[in-house]
């Protein structure tokens, strides 16, 4: 299990957050409820969803590299 206070823990958390928000953007009921705000604290979810959808190849490659690192090297 990774520690949240280490650099790799923060990277894992960030990647999982971006992937989750990008997935929630595809669900219509959750999209209108969670990702409707574009500013403020709730805007973080919207911005993470936009990053996940626009940079989906880079996010997917980063998730694979991080999974390899956590499973085999840590």
Automatic annotation (TrEMBL):
Domain of life (superkingdom): Eukaryota
A Pfam family matched in the record: DUF1242
Membrane topology label: Single-pass type I membrane protein
Gene Ontology CC entries for this record: Golgi membrane
Segments crossing the lipid bilayer: 6-24, 44-72
Alphabetical keyword list: Golgi apparatus, Membrane, Signal, Transmembrane, Transmembrane helix
PANTHER family: PROTEIN KISH-B
Family assignment from sequence similarity: Belongs to the KISH family.
Its job: Involved in the early part of the secretory pathway.
Name of the featured protein: Protein kish
Source organism: Xiphophorus couchianus (Monterrey platyfish)
